[in-house]
Amino acid sequence: MYGRFTGPPEQAVLERFSFLDDADRDLVAFRRGDHNRLGFSLQLVTVRHLGRFLEDPLDVPGVVVDYVASQIKVADPSCVKAYLERRPTRFEHQTETCEVYGFRSYPSVKESLLAWVGDQAWATGDGPKALFYSAVARLRAERVLLPGMTTLRDDVAGARKAAETRLYAALAGVVTAEQASDLEQMLKRSHGQARHAGVLSAAVQVLFEAETWGEAVPLAVVWDAIESVVGSRAKLRTAMEAVQEFIPP
Predict the structure, then answer these.
(1) Confidence band (pLDDT; 50, 70, 90) for 246?
(2) What angle do helix axes 11-18 and 34-50 make, rounded to 10 degrees?
(3) 84, 109, 99, 106: which is closest to 44 by C-alpha?
């Protein structure tokens, strides 16, 4: 799930994102009190794991709390509840974490990210979902704090729309009015072919089903069944004539 924990992480994931090395533990040691040391540590492993800080820094699975507490020698992990008593502390720790570990804000890279998204949309034709997850992966790789999901979704959609507009403008610049008219007619014919093919397919399906009705079924009954599906014999005849135009002699 985007930007939050959805349950206890698997052991491999826990060890990958929540392990504190010597430099991490040295930084943690500057905090006063077990609750601050554990709270700081949880914010650090959270931003590594999720790509953003949580509104509630303690909204973390218990296994993560216990694993981190064991690394910094906090005997009673429940002491972390006191971390929220002084509200500015969490934000001071977030700022320090960003400065030490090189995390950047989304607004600082937004312009370059959306330019990249536009290039991706132009080159790959990817849809909004694929582009969204590509953007998330790029932000994570570059240690950029993820914005709200709605914000990123709308920004990516806007960049994709701009790329589409640019593509249409480029195509319009190389297609003459006559070619554009021919393309429009081709599309209309293609749509018509699909509609007529659908009518014929429905009629043939009835014929296949009629084979199971027995040999004594009158032809009129079969025609009634076909007309109930396609509308009328005239409509069926029109579809047949339209499709025949595209059948090689």
Answers:
(1) low
(2) 110
(3) 99
Q: Is the pTM of this model over 0.85?
A: no
Contact between 71 and 14 under an 8 Å Cβ cutoff? The reply is no
Amino acid code (one letter) for 62:
G
Q: Which two tokens stand for residue 199?
A: 């009518």
In the chain, where the domains are located:
11-101, 110-174, 177-244
Tell the residue number behind the tokens 């998204």, with chain if given. Answer: 117
Confidence of residue 168 (pLDDT cuts 50, 70, 90): low
Q: Is the pLDDT of residue 213 over 60?
A: yes
Distance, CA of 79 to CA of 99 (rounded, Å): 27
Neighbours of 173 (CB within 10 A): 7
C-alpha 223: how far from its chain's center?
Answer: 49
CA distance 183 to 41: 61
By the 8 A CB rule, do 90 and 60 touch? Answer: no
Place of tokens 């910094």: 72
**DSSP class of residue 145?**
-
